[in-house]
Structures are given as structure tokens and as C-alpha cells.
Amino acid sequence: MPVRIPDNLPAAGVLESENIFVMSESRAAMQDIRPMKVLILNLMPNKIETETQLLRLLGNTPLQVDIDLLRIHDKESKHTPTDHLNTFYRDFEDVRHRNYDGLIITGAPLGQLDFEEVTYWDHIREIIDWSQEHVTSVLFLCWAAHAGFYHLYQLERKILAEKCSGVYQHSRIRAHVPLMRGFDDEFYAPHSRYAQMDVDELKAHPELTVLAESDQAGAYLVISKDNRNLFVMGHPEYRKSTLKDEYQRDLAAGLAPKIPQNYFRNDDPEAEAIARWYSHGSLLVSNWLNYYVYQLTPYDLSDLSAITPWEQSG
Fold first, then answer.
1. Residue 235 designated active-site
2. Strand, helix or coil at 145?
């Protein structure tokens, strides 16, 4: 089944050209089915690019998914047309009275800034608090994962001396958990961040379970014991060119970035980039939607108290 998106969203044409199944709102209205309702809080500057990345993954699942796009504020964007934001995005006041099956909170280019210094930090905290009562499961990506650890569990991240950028090998350390079904013992995922959580601190926390980690990049997948919050420290949504685009952007800005590790063939930035995480990214989001959203959420979204979490083992 497809992801359902507004008829004129720019991502629709891109996804259809890539043979990814999407369905317009007008066509979906003809089907008698209760779709999963997923809210995406998009904190990235280039919102159209991030929308398309996430919709690729959501469109690769067997479920019909109804998407709402949420912005953190209504200020003018340097990277996304105002008409696009006004047409396709909602403000929090428009959705705070609703319940959702899933919420995805994206990363943000705020890696070296203290959370309390982020201009919209109060709004982030408000939305995270709201999600714990109004959403079946929340998927935090990269910066959002660190923000979630800080706000929900008072866990501090560590700012790195240099950016963690590249495609790293990870090990599955919990096998018999629904999220990890179908995962290889080892798999790759891209990272692009300036901070890192202490994996031992995460493992010791009574409300959290570490599912996968990397010797080089640290903890990657962490889930709360009640299964309501999934923290992904990397970027499974990235496309083949994304790390290259970031590297070239940083070069142009005079930041002297290191070449992303394990990404370009022979570590040569003039050579081809190698994508080796697509299958993992699709499986991760498919398992999240199936086991932590679809299998748990009530048919009537007004009764989220009916959720019975999976037992974690293995």
C-alpha cells in the first residue's frame, strides 16, 4: 500500500519517477480503509528534500499512511519557498487537539548549540510532551534523538572535537525484538553530527534499551521500555548524494571538513559515493510502522490508553 500525500506536493513527482508507490488524497478518499496517520515535524532547512527522503521510506511499507507535515514556527525560510510552507505545512495549534499513530521528528543543523539556546526549544519540549499522550510511537532522528534523551531522561550528549560523518558498520545487540526482525547481524548506516551519546549511560538507564551500536559511531538504535519512543542516532533516510552534498557545502563554507568515512570509493571525494544502507533504512521504518504503530495503535485514535507494548527480550 502507498503513502498518501497532498495532490500537488513536489515529492509526489520525484517518488513516482523512482517507481515508489504514492497515492494522492483524492484517490485515497475512494478507498474504505483506515490509514495510519503519521505526523512529520520537519526541522531541516531544505524541507522539500527532507520530505522526499522520509516519504521514500514510508512509501516502501505495505500500509497506507496518511501524512501531515508540521513546522516549528511560521518564520520565513531561506531554503524552502513560503508558498510551499503555507500550502503543505501545519502549525502546532492546528494539530494539538488530534491524536496520531506515529510522529517523526527530524534532525536539525543545531549540533553544536546547547539545547536551551535553541530559539524554539520551548516549542520542541512542548511537542515532545504532547506526543507522549497523543501519539502511539515517536521516531526521533539524529539531533531530535539527542533532544529527546535530554528532555525526557535528562541525559546529556557530548560535543565531539570533529564532525562524525560517514557510513559506519553497526552490530545488532538485541535480536529478539520486533524492530530488529530481518536485520543482519551487521549493517551500515550514515551519520552526520557533531555530538554523541554515552552508550554505557544509555545501556544503564532503566527506561531505555540499546538495540544496535557501532564501534566508531556509538549507539545507533535505542528504544524506550514502553516502546513509545524510538531514537535513531543516524540518518537512514539519506540518499546516496546527501553526505557528498554536505561535504561540498562545508568545503565551500571554509570549514575544512574531513572526508566522510567509508563513503566514497577508495575514500576519494572525486570518486563515486557508495550507498550501502538503503535496504536497512527501508526495513527499519517498515518494522517501526508495522510493529510499533500498526500492531499497537487502537482503531479508534481517541483511545491511545488501549496500547499494549511488546515485551522486549533477546
1. yes
2. helix
User: Are 18 and 130 in a shared domain?
Assistant: no
Are 273 and 146 part of one and the same domain?
Answer: yes
Catalytic residue status for 237: yes
| Angle (CA) 92 105 69, round 5° | 50
Give the cell for residue 100: 496520531
Examine the domain organization and report whether 183 and 139 are in the same domain: yes
* The one catalytic residue among 49, 51, 142, 164: 142
Q: Is 21 helix (H, G, I), strand (E, B) or coil?
A: coil
Out of 49, 51, 237, 246, the active site residue is 237
213 Cβ contact partners less than 8 Å away, ≥ 6 residues apart: 170, 171, 173, 199, 219, 220
Q: What is the DSSP string of 89-130?
A: EE-HHHHTT--EEEEEE---S-TTS-GGGSTTHHHHHHHHHH
Rounded (10°) CA dihedral 33, 180, 284, 289? 20
Per-residue model confidence as pLDDT tens digits over 227-269: 999 999 999 999 999 999 999 999 999 988 999 999 999 999 9
CATH number at residue 133: 3.40.50.880
249 labelled binding-site residue: yes
Domain count, the chain: 2
Range of the domain at 125: 32-293
- Which 3 state secondary structure label does DSSP give 83? helix
**Position 183 confidence tier, pLDDT thresholds 50, 70, 90:** very high
Same domain as 200, residue 62 = yes
What is the pTM assigned to this prediction? 0.87
